[in-house]
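Ticket opened by: R.M.
Priority: normal
Category: complex prediction / small molecule

The reporter submitted a protein together with copper (II) ion and asked that the result be attached to this ticket for the collaborator who will pick it up next week. Submitted input follows.
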Amino acid sequence: MTNKTYFIPNIHCMHCVMHIKNRLNEIEGVESVEGNPQTREIEVEFSSPATEEAILQALAEINYPAEV
Ligand SMILES: [Cu+2]
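Result attached by the on-call engineer:
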């Protein structure tokens, strides 16, 4: 299990966090997604077959790119 925290500048509110959660939970292997609209951070727990690359790509696709 890998645990990663991403800073996502485009997060403005809980709605943004929910949108991100829904999208990342579609990825097979993503175990949990927690987000904080105040810090604009998303914490993702995942394991195979999910990859960090797939998570970063999904975030970019919905216009919430992570700052890495
Ligand atoms: Cu929002």
